[in-house]
Specification:
8 strands; alpha/beta; four-stranded parallel β-sheet; 319 residues
């Protein structure tokens, strides 16, 4: 046997072994790099709550940008694809993310675990017009459950359960510890809001907003909802002249002089009421449906609720 023949056979024997080593090394590099579990959340309010629960156990992607409107924001093709690659999708539901829910449905149909937080948080329904609610939506579920921190406590606990059940690789003890810590912070928030709202005399606990968003807060803390500039649970609706006339009449009867408008929406419609009522109306901005960028007033859910409580208390006591 020649040296050339022996060398050829030796090469044929070594190459498969090298290929096995290279393939194994490549697979290890892939799995140890970008293969972290993924949780995708639609709204930024739920995104902050979910991040508090998840901590460092998984990557949390929030689709809705700061200061956006949950009723009207949409997704790019890249974001839609992220939904279908997620281990878990957390969304508000109850019709809130009007342009996103079809993508959530598509992700669910492809086998992704999804959790509808609003549906799980004992949702209220919009009340009839005479009770201060949007007449055309009376009886339909109100998606704005986060204005009641007690319902957020329930939703946060259920999100923890969903993460543990559906997201492989997370540490259950770490998730439970995060959930317990955040639950205590939410309980403190409720206590603080109760004490703050105690400053408002009962006859002044009347709310007029740019659209119907504070029904849960009203029920939890004993407010009356007089009406809204946009007589709907969504910002995509618009008021008629008769709607504005009815609202100004209701405000006069109730002696209301403060209108709360969402900081992420133009306050033009609220300013119309100021004109209608002879300039006697205060327009106070709240963070009702979206967080802001960090450091801009409402970078977290806890900051948002504390800022709103202070603004409402000051606005209704004349402070």
């Amino acid at each position: 046997m020649t040296g050339k023949t022996r060398g050829t056979r030796r090469l044929r024997t070594v190459l498969p072994a090298l290929l096995i080593l290279v393939t194994a090394g490549t697979a290890t590099a892939c799995t140890s790099g970008d293969d972290r579990p993924q949780v995708v959340v639609t709204t930024n309010i739920l995104g902050d709550i979910t991040q508090e629960i998840v901590g460092d156990e998984a990557d949390v992607t929030v689709l809705m940008k700061p200061n956006a409107d949950p009723h009207s924001f949409g997704l790019s093709a890249v974001q839609a694809a992220e939904l279908e690659r997620a281990d878990l999708v957390v969304f508000n539901g109850l019709g809130l993310e009007e342009n996103v829910l079809r993508h959530v449905d598509a992700a669910r149909e492809s086998g992704v675990a999804t959790f509808e937080a609003g549906k799980a948080a004992d949702p209220l329904t919009f009340q009839a017009h005479d009770d201060g609610g949007p007449e055309e939506q009376a009886g339909q579920p109100d998606p704005h459950f986060w204005t009641d921190p007690d319902r957020v406590r329930k939703a946060a606990g259920l999100i923890a359960d969903q993460v543990i059940e559906h997201v492989d690789g997370v540490d259950e003890k770490a998730i439970r510890a995060n959930a317990d810590r955040y639950d205590a912070q939410l309980a403190d928030l409720t206590t603080w809001m109760d004490k703050s709202f105690d400053r408002i005399p009962e006859q002044r606990r009347a709310l007029v907003t740019n659209h119907h968003v504070f029904g849960y807060l009203a029920e939890r803390f004993g407010f009356r909802v007089i009406g809204a500039v946009i007589p709907s649970g969504t910002t995509l609706a618009s008021p008629s002249s008769s709607d504005l006339r009815s609202l100004t009449q209701a405000m006069r009867r109730a002696g209301v002089q403060t209108v709360f408008a969402d900081s992420s929406q133009p306050t033009r419609l609220a300013e119309v009421l100021r004109t209608e009522l002879g300039g006697q109306v205060r327009v106070v901005e709240l963070y009702s449906e979206s967080l802001t960028e960090q450091g801009k007033g409402a970078g977290t859910y806890l900051q948002m609720m504390r800022a709103n409580t202070t603004a409402m208390t000051d606005g209704l006591t004349g402070a």
